[in-house]
Amino acid sequence: MSLLMQYASTMVNMKELSSITDPMILLEKIKDLLVPILLISVINLLFTTILQYYILFNPVSGTSFFASIIKSLKYFIPYLIIMVLLAFAGSIAIVLGVFVLIVGAFFAMLYVVTIYLFILPVMMVEKTNIGATISRTLSLTHKHFWSNIGWVAVFIILMLVISVIFSGLILLPFSGSFLKNILNPDDAGKMVDVASNPVFIILSAIVSAFTLPLMPIFACILYFNGKAGEQEVQPVIQPEPENNRVRVEDLYAKPYSEDHPDNPENKE
Q1: Number of domains in the chain
Q2: Please, which residues have CB within 8 angstroms of residue 45's CB and are 6 or more apart in sequence?
């Protein structure tokens, strides 16, 4: 899957876009690249669905990867619809976050990513429809909200660090210096020319094969942690023994016997 994604990414020539200064020409070029970008996005979502199913069910039922391809297809269309809705709502949230400066945009991005991570595990484990998946996803996201947001932020930072390190290593055979790739982004940007090189595609695919499963694995951990939070053991209230229960007659004074010294009738 990584190899196919790396090869498909060569369909988009980002270097050509970076050299265009005229906004109108840039928009025309983006329109031409819109179909390849959408196609790559759909393929990526399909691979994500397959991988998430495999990671969820292989450990517990031994589902093979090829069986996961078939069984995960029924979740792909609902997942695609939810992702379109999430992309629309997420774009609005990020734009609104920009008005609260960079911090607001970054928080909105974390919120959208947190929702995204819950979608497939909820749909596959709980067998929910589109509406129930959205509702359930929002419920799990908002339960232990700050904890979820914090873990997602840590995960994204770790993924960025890993991506930077591996990107430098991949470009090493073409530039000859790891530090040059890391410390000089402008020089690293010139390495876009090697994106269609078969060696570069293979190296990128190998790296992706190690990093691609990390997000579905983290999504499983996040989901089952949320489920565990819902199933916290509640204190069991033991019923009181029969002889300790308060009865109606206990609320009233018991009558004295005729020969009782405190009987008011005897005092008269």
Answers
A1: 1
A2: 76, 79, 80, 83
